[in-house]
Amino acid sequence: MINIVKGNIILFRKYKEEIKQFVITHLRKHLSAFSEDKFKSVWGNISQENQTYIRESLFAALYNEKSASVRNLIADAIGQIGGTIMSINTNNWPNFIDNVFALLGNPSDESIISGLPFFKTSSVIAELFDKVNEQLLVVFAKSFEHTNNKVRSAGASAFSGYIISVDKKAVSKLEGLIIP
Question: Bigger pLDDT: 1 or 165?
């Protein structure tokens, strides 16, 4: 059973990196339908209030985390939990796209690197981004032209993951970014 205590997700940043890694990994395992077989998602057993709190806190934790390895785990948890709850209904995380674009609009390279992998997380999430195709073109183009090699690499990885997870019609809209 997961007990949600207000503030724990955001405030866990004061703990050692190993503890943060353990907490976010186990949160993901218990809330995602994509976890190992021995785990079953308990998302539906959590109150609406706590579901909202978790959705908001995960992005806040991602935005504020200093450790790259913990940020990667938080982003992975968001992607898997998001894929789980949005596969039922894409409106189950109403501000998901806004949160991702807020990360990408931040001047911090770390925030941009944390936001790019969401484009390759799952076909459910990829379909959400199809609705904002023009913004996708801008995001990918900016990442390819960025001065930081890590941002360019994250952009290339996100782009390749995205085109694999969407249908051919969506890929054709991104043709201008594909090198002939």
Answer: 165
